[in-house]
TrEMBL record, chain A:
Record organism: Actinomadura algeriensis
Lineage of producing organism: Bacteria, Bacillati, Actinomycetota, Actinomycetes, Streptosporangiales
Alphabetized UniProt keyword annotations: Amino-acid transport, Cell membrane, Membrane, Transmembrane, Transmembrane helix, Transport
Domain of life, source organism: Bacteria
Protein's name in the database: Branched-chain amino acid transport system permease protein
Localization in the cell: Cell membrane
Transmembrane stretches, start-end: 34-54, 66-88, 95-114, 120-142, 154-173, 185-216, 248-268, 280-307, 319-338
From TrEMBL, chain B:
Principal subcellular localisation of the protein: membrane
Pfam families: BPD_transp_2
PANTHER family: HIGH-AFFINITY BRANCHED-CHAIN AMINO ACID TRANSPORT PROTEIN BRAE, HIGH-AFFINITY BRANCHED-CHAIN AMINO ACID TRANSPORT SYSTEM PERMEASE
Protein name (Swiss-Prot/TrEMBL): Branched-chain amino acid transport system permease protein
Transmembrane regions: 30-47, 53-71, 78-98, 104-127, 134-151, 184-204, 234-256
Subcellular location: Cell membrane
Domain of life: Bacteria
Species this protein is from: Actinomadura algeriensis
Keyword terms of this UniProt record: Cell membrane, Membrane, Transmembrane, Transmembrane helix
Topological relation to the membrane, as annotated: Multi-pass membrane protein
């Protein structure tokens, strides 16, 4: 990991303070440092792929994993962007993110079943619905806990996640559900099989990520969000309605999960506990990208998608999540501020 | 926690023998524990057998919760991965019993050792790299999940199948096996829970315990006064893991079965957390009160699901109600009584006493 640490000066990384996370959100993106870090991540990815090549001996197998991993990684990035935005602005570790994603999948499933709409058109329902749910959750449950300990906020979102998951289980049962993508197709990319659904999901995730980025950097409201993230009190003094910014940010964060849910729904079997797995992956991505770093989340998502797929080559018969967790622990210990975070 | 007792102790009592010295908190808590145990002993003879099973489950919850509370309540190190220690206790004793015929008592001790060792290793790295708050919670969570995945795919832990405890003829305390509705299970669990509570009381008032609560309240100040922070944190983490492993080992014996999900699943960690938070985090009796509430709640919901009233008919045969209910309880308690039931009560009482 030493090559990652070259960028900075202090030898021992410390756990960042919340304010540092906020500063990072405000400063994320668009710098030469970011490009250099992206280069390091790219280098790591190349090494990982090379080892996979040696292990499997088959270029095609590795290539297929790389393609599948990157396509899936775009979705992870989108989910993690919502999570990291909420952390960066509100300092809330939202354990309910995955459960909210599962809710969005069931909304998409219900709409497709009920109206026969094309699955992707349910974006028009699921994204606003998730935005509203997020805003309501923030106003009803989390707003006003600002002074409370981190553990309490964590416990509330944990309770919410249990409630949502088990609510889904009670009303819809545990039977898995499928959402078929009409007119799905496959094509070969230099030998690797790519399903149309995966490609759409990847492109959609990147587009939505770009919109979010534009929203944060180029609009008045985005400026307000970044101002609140950087210094809540200061923003309040210059007339920003901090509580509203918090609510809207939480809404946007969950809306990201909603969008990702619709894009991912045709690729997975929908179950009430499905969010759990996405939640775990999203947390890993968030830590990897630097908590509160929106651009880092996207790159981290791609890397984790890659790691997940390559793990099945490294470790035959093991769960792909094992590699994800291993990367997670190493990054947590060696660089808790994330690959793209600045030192506190 | 309890403040520092400057007077009190043997000398002060000897100096004024005419009046009885006020009980120190430690002795008061030990007396309460003794009374609770005495009251609980005849319970299985009085309760119908279905309720007896609930009582045993409550005791398992209580042991697990006392374990979690030691590290996360007294020590302030919020663990999201206590399933790791519960699972290591369950699997070590199950493995030794099933594959080598070792008594579960010895298996339990071995499980405690394995869990404590694992806790020290993960704790060392976490403290060495100064993981705190959400980062520490996520690291412990990842550790438990990794164990679950490894156990699920490893041959010698029987992969996803897990272990089934072989049945013996008759009953044997050495093998911790009794007829299904025997009160002996309750008494063994009660003894284990009693010992766990005793240890947590003694720990809290010990030198190490006082250091640990001081470190929790202000690590920098404690360190600057020369407290060996790392050593005391590791002791606490190891003790917490060992107590939790006892719950795991007994769980296997009582249900005669364990698999990766039951032992290492994240719901185990959540159960430990929810129990303590509802009862009162960082208090001696919080885990016990929480266990009684969570344990009986899951029994109430199970009955409700078997024979639901008219308006809840759609719930027939569905799962999830019990967890949903304690999720609501969790949210309400955190929002309204952030110190939990016991914590809020003691705060109220001491406020009244001061007035």
């Amino acid at each position: 990991m030493s090559d990652i640490n070259n960028g900075g000066a202090a030898p021992a990384p410390a756990t960042p303070e919340p304010s540092a996370a906020r500063r990072r959100l405000a400063a994320s993106g668009g710098t030469g440092a970011l490009l250099r870090r992206a280069g390091v991540v790219g280098g790591l990815a190349v090494i990982a792929i090379a080892i996979a090549l040696l292990k499997s001996g088959s270029g095609l197998v590795v290539w297929q994993s790389v393609v599948t991993g990157l396509l899936m990684g775009g979705l992870y990035g989108l989910i993690a962007m919502g999570l990291t935005l909420i952390f960066g602005v509100l300092d809330i570790v939202n354990f309910a993110h995955g459960a909210l994603l599962a809710i969005a999948m069931f909304i998409a499933f219900g709409v497709v079943q009920g109206t026969g709409l094309h699955p992707y058109l349910t974006l028009l329902v699921a994204v606003p619905a998730l935005f509203l749910i997020g805003a309501v959750v923030h106003r009803g449950l989390l707003s006003g806990t600002g002074g409370a300990s981190l553990e309490n906020q964590l416990l509330i979102t944990l309770g919410l996640s249990l409630l949502l998951e088990n609510g889904l289980l009670m009303f819809f049962g545990a039977e898995p559900k499928n959402i078929a993508l009409p007119g799905d197709f496959q094509f070969s990319l230099f030998g690797a099989v790519v399903a149309g659904g995966r490609l759409y999901a990847f492109v959609g995730a990147l587009l939505i990520g770009a919109v979010l980025f534009w929203l944060l950097r180029r609009t008045r409201f985005g400026t307000a969000i970044r101002a609140v993230a950087a210094n809540g009190q200061g923003a309040e003094l210059v007339g920003v309605n901090v509580r509203r910014v918090h609510t809207v940010t939480f809404g946007i964060g969950t809306a990201c999960a909603g969008a990702a849910a619709v894009l991912a729904a045709p690729l997975v079997t929908v179950t009430p506990t499905l969010g759990e797995q996405f939640n775990i992956t999203a947390f890993v991505v968030v830590v990897l990208g630097g908590m509160g770093n929106v651009a880092g989340a996207l790159v981290g998502g791609l890397l984790i998608g890659l790691v997940e797929q390559l793990t099945t080559i490294y470790m035959d018969g093991q769960s792909s999540l094992l590699g994800v967790f291993a990367v997670f622990l190493v990054v947590l210990f060696l660089r808790p501020q994330g690959l793209f975070g600045r030192r506190a | 926690m309890t403040g520092i007792t400057i007077t009190g102790g043997r000398d002060a009592a000897a100096a004024r023998p005419a009046e009885a010295p006020p009980l120190r908190p430690q002795n008061r808590q030990l007396i309460v524990l003794g009374v609770l145990l005495l009251v609980a002993i005849p319970l299985p003879l009085l309760l119908p057998s279905a309720q007896g099973a609930v009582a045993v489950r409550i005791l398992i919850f209580a042991i697990m919760a006392i374990g979690w509370n030691t590290m996360s309540g007294f020590g302030g190190m919020f663990s999201f991965g206590h399933a790791a220690f519960f699972g290591l206790g369950a699997y070590t004793s199950a493995y030794l019993l099933v594959n080598h015929g070792v008594s579960p008592w010895i298996g339990m001790l071995a499980g405690m050792a394995v869990a404590a060792l694992a806790a020290v290793v993960i704790g060392y790295f976490a403290f060495r790299y100064k993981l705190q708050g959400a980062y520490f919670a996520l690291a412990t969570f990842a550790f438990a999940e990794m164990l679950r995945l490894i156990v699920t795919t490893t041959e010698f832990t029987n992969k996803a199948v897990g272990f089934t405890v072989p049945l013996i003829d008759g009953s044997s305390l050495w093998k911790i096996q009794f007829p299904a509705d025997s009160p002996a299970y309750f008494w063994v669990a009660l003894a284990l829970a009693g010992i766990a509570a005793l240890i947590s009381i003694l720990f809290l008032h010990s030198r190490t315990g006082r250091y640990v609560t001081a470190i929790r309240d202000d690590e920098l100040a404690a360190a600057s006064l020369g407290a060996p922070v790392m050593r005391y944190k590791l002791i606490t983490v190891a003790l917490s893991a060992a107590i939790t492993a006892v719950a795991g080992a007994f769980y296997t014996q009582y249900y005669l079965f364990v698999n990766p999900e039951l032992a290492f699943g994240s719901s185990v960690s959540v159960q430990a957390i929810a129990t303590v938070v509802i009862g009162g985090i960082g208090t001696i009796w919080g885990p016990v009160v929480g266990a009684v509430i969570v344990g009986s709640l899951s029994d109430v919901t199970a009955t409700l699901l078997r024979t639901p009233p008219e308006f809840l008919g759609f719930l027939q045969g569905r799962s999830g109600l019990d967890v949903a209910l304690y999720a609501i309880l969790l949210i309400v308690i955190v929002r309204l009584l952030p110190k939990g039931i016991v914590g809020t009560l003691t705060a109220k009482l001491s406020a009244r006493r001061r007035r």
